[in-house]
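Entry 14. Ran structure prediction on the chain below.
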Amino acid sequence: MIYCGIDWAERTHDVALVDDTGKLLAKRHITDDAVGYKMLLDLLAEYGETEETPIPVAIETSRGLLVAVLRTGKRQVFAINPLAAARYRDRHSVSRKKSDPGDALVLANILRTDMHAHRTLPQDTDLARAVAVLARAQQDTIWNRQQIANQLRSLLREYYPSALAAFEPWKNGLCRPEAHEVLELAPTPTRAARLTRAQLQAALKRAGRKRGIETEAERLRAVFRAEWAHQPPLVEDALGKQMLALLLQLVAASKAGDDLAEAVEEAFPQHPDAEIITSFPGLGIQLGARVLAEIGDDRSRFADARGLKAYAGSSPVTRASGKKSSITRRWVKNDRLNHAGYLWAFSAITASPGAKAHYRRRRDEHSDWHAAAQRNLFNRMIGQLYHCLQHRMLFEEDTAFSAQLAVAA
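Output, structure tokens:
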């Protein structure tokens, strides 16, 4: 048996091959391009790799073109956590020396000694991986948009509090197109106080508002013309230019988020698991796509529901030593899936009578805090999702929460 370890870098990669005894058979330094990839495949073929007997490969990343090339065929690819690889490195050297060829050798030896303790990359379908790309990108864009909106809000508090007061009644406030049009038209409070009804109405129409334009324009005009504190004129103009720069970023992030959301709505329903996932209360297309992106569609990825629950961070972890033991929440988990689970459980409480009864029981009988009760609900529902996906079944309220519904009745 031969094992391959690859120390990944941006421009070049180091490759090491070892046998069952740990003897170094070959090492190469390849470039991150088609020529380097061919050199790697030729090296594997030189040492006996065939289509039926591929050589397992360990690498410290799960993304990129190199990983895509390695995942062709039946080859097992192991994405080793860099922190775990560092711990293995300390087993072989007390001096804590480090080198790229040495790291490739460490990765190869990880497979030689502990391949059974590591998990291969899931064999998800191309459609599931495409949904994962779109869903994660849309989630990143939403987070980025909120971060920019928070920066813009903080800046407006310094010199333009009338804008915050004007946009406060609107849902999503600074992220709305109406707010963008008004701020672009009047980047400073002095200019906002001089806006006419016609200008405000035109801005609201450009933003796409159809109803209540005259009433809203009158309200904005009254807010902007009220008495507010002002920065010195030169400072106010400078802050207005800074605000416009942030506004451009916010508009771009908002458009990118909308475009990616449309792409998710187009791709996710095409997946065979979409109907099962969206049958659960609280899971729509966007949130369901995020769940699919993290769990994938490789049914052999998780041995049982407990593995999926631990991966999502919904199940507790027990630490015991001697007579002492403690049960706490998990800190090592898939953060994206855990975040999606928080939103899922929050929505399910109002969408499902059984979920609401389960949540109330955790709060009343077990004295859980809100977050703990919600995490427990997520833990139960993701176990149900695992069962439904394995058996190709849709969610049924009476079956999932029969006891809770009886108690609630």
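DSSP finds 19 helices and seven strands in the chain. Will compare against last week's run tomorrow.
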